[in-house]
Amino acid sequence: xxxxxxESILLSFExxxxxKLRAFLASLGVVIGISIVIMMGWxxxxxxxxxxxxxxxxxxxxLYIDKWDWTGNDNWRSVRNRKNITQKQAExxxxxxxxxxxxxxxxxxxxxNIEYDGEVYQGMTAVGTTAENAFTPVGNLLLGRYFNExxxxxxxxxxxxxHLVYATIFKGENPLGKTIKLNGRPLxxxxxxxxxxxxxxxxxxxxxxxxxxxxxAIWDVDKKSMSIGIKAGVDNNLDEVRTETIGLxxxxxxxxxxxxxxxxxxxxxAFEKSIETLRLNVYMIGIVMTSLAFIVGIIGxxxxxxxxxxxxxxxxxxxxxxxxxxRSIWLQFLIESSFLCxxxxxxxxxxxxAIAYFAATYLPDYFPEVSFLxxxxxxxxxxxxxxxxxxxxxxxxxxxxxxxxRLNPVEALRFD
Length: 416
Fold this sequence. Notes:
By secondary structure, this protein is of the alpha+beta class.
């Protein structure tokens, strides 16, 4: 049996070497199908990385109380009509909360303009917050430090800037100690946050953090709704913190027992459903495209194998007349069709590896939103592509192999 398999492999390789163009054209459908499978797995691997990066930005032990639902799942009209979360309510929650490690008020001023060295830079976001914000993922700094409690209490003229703000304004030079202006107010740069943006949170690197009291001196906090970051400390404590937070917020906002929450709890779990929907859509599109490509590939390889059977009819007759069993005949053609598909899979892996490397290396320079792409293919894709290609080859070669094995040796020897 092993000898027969070895001989079949050698015959298959010789047949492919003799008919290179025909073998390539026959396996083209398989190349396309396997490539779609590989690229789909590569994209999903990148999406998983982007998801994990997003979770690290939000913080797996963090809850964010906000007027708005970040996932957009709630009815927009009803969310818009909610009352703002005020600074007074945020301070009440901060004083009453017992299970959370930190309760951190935040308020955003979107579309802020920055003045520096005679230039105006648009589209940034100013965030008024407390010194405790340094203990959230925002506290991972590239340069400098975060503002402290004394600077928070006195509303000092200090600012911590996001990575995109740093790259846009200072273009790599040391920004520490430099003065920029927000709404005409001078602020001294004391820190730079590490790059954190992902395809889901690409705006995050545009943020700048200033003491809440300083924010209040520049903008009217009563006109905007606050967001409140709740740091549980450990993931195991998250359920207890969430329950207490909801209860306290309902009391603070004077909600009756039968009234729904008029605020949103935003956390990493809130994004899991959205990400799973995105994954499912990618899967469905990939499965449809892969199926069509494989159908074309199977038909193409099956036709080539029928041609091969016809070309080798006399050879099959000679082998049968010398005592070759049906098993040997159909094994030869099954291995040849599988080998044909396997060569297509290898070609796909080489091609897709090159695409993945160049896309992940060079595209983010022009399109930062695709920085989640992986430069190498996940190892499991090599196994999947190999198994799938062999299965497709067996399926495509089954009928031609059976037909070859059933040939009458006398009629086969007469074939011209």
